[in-house]
Design a protein that fits this description.
Elements (H helix, E strand, L loop, with lengths): L3 H8 L3 H13 L3 E4 L3 E4 L5 H13 L4 H23 L2 H18 L7 H20 L4 H9 L1 H11 L3 H19 L3 H31 L1
Antiparallel strand pairs: 1-2
Helix pairs in contact: 3-4, 4-6, 4-9, 4-10, 5-6, 5-9, 6-7, 6-8, 8-10, 9-10
Length: 215
């Protein structure tokens, strides 16, 4: 970034204003000061937005998951269609590898610990980000990464149930098959089915909680 004096001249403000502004940007991870070299824009611009978007979703309360579903529908359906057109054999193999790992984890029938569930959610998110990378559009990767914490929190309850996890892996398989066959329409349709299953599981979980509260 330009030196403080240059920023003051360009923006017509004092050094105090510039320093306070840079301090706030640094706290959010948008810029980083390097001694004797200056101030640089962060190479990972998705990181500052993670907390912001996670807070935005959590503040919406009960409607947060529905809103997240709508956003995911816009992003992921198109991601799947583009991935069917653009994914390389290596990228498809990576998606297959991740989904196989999810299947292997689901083979453990014992009750999962919080750490196991966290690992599963991280791997599930890795599948979605890898799918976004297949589009060759880095903006999709940045947008999904910025929503990572909201994704994982929305999965915590539903992935505590083995049947829901297994169903999710089956739906991933449908998406993979469509991408492997280079069928964008089928890939989009399979992704819509995956998202509908996520929404249904979330609503069922909410209804079960309400029923328990009424007992």
């Amino acid at each position: 970034m330009p030196a403080e004096r240059d920023l003051c001249d360009r923006l017509g403000v004092s050094r105090t204003v510039i320093r306070e502004s840079l301090k706030h940007l640094a706290a959010r991870g948008i810029v980083k000061g390097v001694p004797r070299k200056g101030t640089f824009v962060s190479g990972n611009l998705s990181e500052p937005f993670i907390d912001l978007l996670d807070l935005c979703v959590s503040r919406q309360g009960p409607s947060g998951r529905l809103n997240l579903y709508e956003v995911r529908s816009l992003l992921e359906v198109e991601i799947a269609g583009l991935a069917a057109e653009r994914a390389t054999p290596v990228e498809i193999s990576e998606l297959e590898r991740i989904n196989c790992l999810l299947e292997e984890m689901n083979a453990r029938e014992n009750q999962w610990t919080e750490e196991q569930l966290r690992s599963y959610n991280n791997l599930e998110f890795q599948f979605h980000v890898s799918l976004a990378r297949c589009t060759k559009n880095e903006l999709f990767v940045v947008l999904l990464s910025a929503l990572s914490e909201a994704f994982k929190r929305s999965w915590t309850d539903i992935h505590a149930h083995s049947a829901t996890r297994r169903h999710g892996v089956e739906l991933h398989r449908n998406i993979l098959n469509a991408i492997r066959s280079r069928d964008p329409r089928k890939a989009r349709r399979a992704t819509r089915e995956n998202l509908k299953a996520f929404l249904k599981a979330s609503l069922d979980m909410k209804e079960n909680r309400n029923d328990s509260g009424r007992v």
